[in-house]
Write a structure and sequence with these properties.
heterodimer, A: mainly beta, six-stranded mixed sheet, five-stranded antiparallel sheet, 0% helix, 57% strand, B: mainly beta, seven-stranded mixed sheet, four-stranded antiparallel sheet, 11 strands, 48% strand, globular
Chain lengths: 111, 112
C-alpha cells in the first residue's frame, strides 16, 4: 500500500527558513498536500501541488516536488513563532478521494 | 460558518462504557472519515464513508463502529471503551477534487 514518511521534529530560529521534507511511495499520486495543525486544533490545509508541477509558491510558502524521487518539501521563509505547529504531508491517489498522511513533523521556532 | 462540528470537545470515560462521538458537516460533502491521533503514530484511519448509506474499514477499525444514515452526520461509536482507545479523534470530510479534506477540531477522549 501507499506509504508517506516524514521526519518527526525540526527546530529553527525565528527569521530563518524552515524546510520540511516528505517522501511517498505511490507513483500514481495526483495531488500532494501540506496541512498545519496548531496545538489543540484540527488540521488545516496550507497548500497543495498537482503532481505534474515541480514548484508552487504562495507568499512565504514554497512547495517543491521531485516526482522522480517521490520527494516533497515545504519551505517556510522568514519563519515566525506562529509557524510552530505539526505539519503533515498527504498524497491523494489517482482514484477516489482518500488521502494518505505522513506521521507529521513538529516544527519548533525559537525566538 | 461552513465546516465540521465535533462533539464533545473532550470526555473522560470509564472503561466498559459505550460512547458515541458526533460529527456533523454542512458542506454537503459525500465522503467522511474518522481518524485517531496518537503521539508518535500520526493519524490513523478508523472508518470512512464514501457516500451516505455506505461505510468502510480503515487501518484501525477494531472496537469502533460507524453509521452514515445521511450526508451530514457520521457518528463514531465505541461499544465498550478500553484504555487503549484514549486518543484525540478527528472527523474529516471531502467533496472530492483538489481541495483535500476539511477537518473538525477534534474530540479528546480519555478512557480510565
Amino acid at each position: 500500500g501507499e506509504d508517506v514518511e516524514q521526519s518527526l521534529f525540526l527546530s529553527v530560529r525565528e527569521g530563518d527558513s524552515s524546510v520540511i521534507n516528505c517522501t511517498y511511495t505511490d507513483s500514481s499520486s495526483t495531488y500532494l498536500y501540506w496541512y498545519k495543525q496548531e496545538p489543540g486544533a484540527g488540521l488545516q490545509l496550507l497548500t497543495y501541488i498537482f503532481s505534474n508541477m515541480d514548484m508552487k509558491q504562495d507568499q512565504r510558502l514554497t512547495v517543491l516536488l521531485n516526482k522522480k524521487d517521490k520527494h516533497l518539501s515545504l519551505r517556510i521563509a522568514d519563519t515566525q513563532t506562529g509557524d510552530s505547529a505539526i505539519y503533515f504531508c498527504a498524497e491523494k491517489e489517482d482514484a477516489g478521494n482518500m488521502l494518505t498522511f505522513g506521521g507529521g513533523t513538529r516544527l519548533m521556532v525559537k525566538p | 460558518i461552513a465546516g465540521i462540528t465535533q462533539a464533545p470537545t473532550s470526555q473522560i470515560l470509564a472503561a466498559g462504557r459505550r460512547m458515541t462521538l458526533r460529527c456533523t458537516q454542512d458542506m454537503r460533502h459525500n465522503a467522511m472519515y474518522w481518524y485517531r491521533q496518537d503521539l508518535g503514530l500520526g493519524l490513523r484511519l478508523i472508518h470512512y464513508s464514501n457516500t451516505a448509506g455506505t461505510t468502510g474499514k480503515g487501518e484501525v477499525p477494531d472496537g469502533y463502529s460507524v453509521s452514515r444514515a445521511n450526508t451530514d452526520d457520521f457518528p463514531l461509536t465505541l461499544a465498550s471503551a478500553v484504555p487503549s482507545q484514549t486518543s484525540v479523534y478527528f472527523c474529516a470530510s471531502s467533496g472530492g477534487g483538489i481541495r483535500g479534506y476539511t477537518f473538525g477540531s477534534g474530540t479528546r477522549l480519555t478512557v480510565v
